[in-house]
Amino acid sequence: MAATLDLIAVDIGASGGRVLCGAFDGQRIALSELHRFGNEPIALDGTLYWDALQLWQSLLHGVQRYAHARGSAPAGIGVDTWGVDFGLLDRAGRLLANPVAYRDARTRGAFEAVLARLGREAIFARTGIQFMPINTIYQLASMVISDDPWLPAAQHLLLMPDLLHYWLTGRITAERTNASTTQLLDVHRGVWADDLIDALAIPRRLFPELIAAGSVVAPLRDALAAHLGLRAGVPVIATGTHDTANAVVAVPGLDGHSAYISSGTWSLIGIETHQPIVDAAALALNVTNEGGVAGTTRVLKNVMGLWLLQECRRHWQRAGADQRWEDILAAAAAAPPFASLVDPDAPEFLAPADMPAALRAFCARTGQPQPEGVGALARCCLESLALKYCVVLDGLERLTGRTIRVLRVVGGGSQNALLNQFTANAAGRPVVAGPVEATALGNVVMQAIALGAIPDVAAGRRILGESLPLAGYEPRDRDAWLAARARFAALIGG
């Protein structure tokens, strides 16, 4: 039997993070949790920041737990995070300030200014990326427009996983899957889109060397290894450092007739291709062509996801009601169906102070009953999400000519049995749910590929399919859901 390979996966999302150990024995991958921690933006003087130093401390705490428990060094360490956000380093390599969170209001006006200056067609032809005000291009443009003093002081821009790579190794790089989320990467050549950067007067010096997923960034810094109780030389490996890239690596059975839904705070719905799709139809659908691993492209659409329900729960908690997820979902299941529907991607849901009030206001504005109570609000969120998934899937089929027969849901949202059943009902297709820790598992698979322990992504997916339980959901109540689909299409103008 082959020796077990221990690989540490650092997986940080926009609402929380975890450090896990993936143990690969040559046939199966098993995950064990080392440390789990929260991650929420912090408001200060009207700006939303990420606490990068807290994330760094949490990463170190998880690695130290491994060292103390195992008394040995892992075979590798890999980091993935959400996309678009970044830290700026000065000439001495010091972080200038905490990164600003993508939900911050600074891109207001910048989004429209960039489109007016460059045009949607030119930006999409070069980058293939979905137009969203949160993208790095608009964050940087807002800094140029406001004459932000950080820009002239900055020497390097590092996306969040690349910042953690730098602190781990001392090497400054940008891994391509996450770099693609900036909307400043040439989708055809995999290099920085210098023409866009120059046209917006963004300093070109900020953009570092690009590396591919599956590359070894560098060994862990000697002094840091000693501090953590590890031997020198542990490789830090660039996985698909955008968490969705890793999640798609970990979709068992993904093929040309299935679509994936990476379900969490955001829902990312798409297919895997070998070429980007940047024609007029793709632009009209506002799909995104994000970089995948091994030369693939993730043609997908970002949908607001479980953010709506997460923010409702936070509102209830602030009001003193400690709603458990199981109670929220039970109340949703018991609530009347299709009473109120919303477009999850409506701009008023991006960062409202009061999500239940925002949902009720949307329903009032569109002539629907206003959902009151936990069950009605939760059912509104979940049914609306499932119906929005169908709109995206229909668009992907028209765009690609593919027939999508199966939906494969991964990530934290794959635990939501009610949403999975609603998705199967709405789509009229079976849903296969799992694995839950897809981003961390994809992280481990990419490390194992980089080290030669797994030959390729296809083999990694087979291993995961044999290592983990998956849940299946068949469509039900087709007539009621078909009627709801027609009503939803009219509601969102689709």
Gyration radius, in Å: 22 Å
Please provide the count of β strands. Answer: 19
Helix/sheet category: alpha/beta
Number of domains: 2
Task: Provide a count of the helices.
Answer: 19
Determine the strand fraction and express it as a percent band.
Answer: 15-25%
The rounded distance between the terminal residues' Cα atoms is 56 Å
Query: Main sheet, how many strands, which sense, barrel?
Result: 7 strands, mixed
CATH architecture of the largest domain: 2-Layer Sandwich
Helix content: 40-55%
Q: What is the residue-averaged pLDDT?
A: 96
What is the molecular shape? globular
What is the highest CATH level, the class of the largest domain?
Alpha Beta
- Kindly identify the CATH topology of the largest domain: Nucleotidyltransferase, domain 5
Q: Which consecutive residue ranges, at least 5 long each, have pLDDT under 50?
A: none
Q: In order across it, which strands form the biggest sheet?
A: 15-16-14-13-17-18-19
**CATH H level of the largest domain: which superfamily?**
ATPase, nucleotide binding domain
In short:
With 494 residues, the protein is of the alpha/beta class. 40% of the residues lie in helices and 19% in strands.
Describe the structure.
The chain has 494 residues and is an alpha/beta fold. It folds into two domains: 237 residues, 2-Layer Sandwich (Nucleotidyltransferase, domain 5), CATH 3.30.420.40; 207 residues, ATPase, nucleotide binding domain (Nucleotidyltransferase, domain 5, 2-Layer Sandwich), CATH 3.30.420. Strand 2 and strand 3 form a beta hairpin. Helix 13 crosses helix 15, helix 15 crosses helix 19 and helix 17 packs across helix 18. The longest helix has 27 residues. The protein is globular.
